């Protein structure tokens, strides 16, 4: 009993060091055990869940794992997790129909978008303060039963301003090319963290049965004269402390018009070019191309944003 108490006390102390202090957390996407699939369907809580196949519910694609798969140990006590991991999946029905637009037949996608009080655009200025620096934390694990297809490109975590660019993104697989190049591309099984201009800042292999913990620190110039857009990346696996893997570096192609964007965690599968399509269709990656329609998924936990 004494021994157990000591172990628990030590465990708590370690965890207290690892856990970010509450006041620094600007937005918390770690899913409490009280959250239900009805909340996912209603977009209640930290995530807006409307970017998905139009004919199925959000909880058909995004499932709460309860105690089935423990969340990242980096931010949770062993055996006493404070959040449940999420599975984000796609299948052939994952064709998103944006309001007033045409179905995105080129992609298969499910996105969860950070929101505060039901507003994603309302969250943006809080998570991305002009002249400030904030860190986007997320942990990713493979779903061994529903693997990705590394001949395709996947965009899985990103901040997207309204012009569709990404302030930073995490990418897996073989980058989409038109015409199609040799597949799979080198390092297709590696995570790539890319800047706004798609330069790779950090890459690491996507190992099975492992939580991959990322923390991307973003400097937000906004329209503040004399300040710059920057990125830095920290990374670890499982319960190991985060280590800086890419020191603070300029992200110079971000414009003032791109000062705010939505924070997504997602599975977006890009197509391969379809030789039967016309050249203009082949370059329209959103609406055309080859998809197998396979059931694929990624697991997420430890998703939150802190102020530096
Ligand atoms: C996959 O979806 C596309 C687009 O809706 C459809 O044309 C195709 O027949 C589907 N394939 C399968 C195997 O269901
Ligand atoms: C969703 O349902 C509509 C109406 O039945 C249908 O036209 C569309 O093809 C369906 N989309 C997918 C991806 O199955
Ligand atoms: C969200 O709602 C809560 C409760 O009404 C309020 O205290 C908080 O200021 C709101 N936050 C934002 C960013 O609107
Ligand atoms: C992976 O994608 C390629 C290219 O579309 C396809 O040829 C292959 O059959 C896919 N593999 C699986 C397991 O679906
Ligand atoms: C902003 O970037 C420019 C060009 O890289 C550099 O000369 C300048 O010192 C930077 N300003 C700040 C405040 O970091």
Automatic annotation (TrEMBL):
Signal peptide, first to last residue: 1-17
Record's keyword annotation contains Metal-binding: no
Claim: GTP-binding is one of the keywords in the record: no
One Pfam family named in its UniProt record: GH131_N
InterPro entries (alphabetical): GH131_N (IPR041524)
Keywords, comma-separated and alphabetical: Signal
Ranges for domain Glycoside hydrolase 131 catalytic N-terminal: 25-307
Name listed for the protein in its UniProt record: Glycoside hydrolase 131 catalytic N-terminal domain-containing protein
Organism of origin: Mycena chlorophos (Agaric fungus)
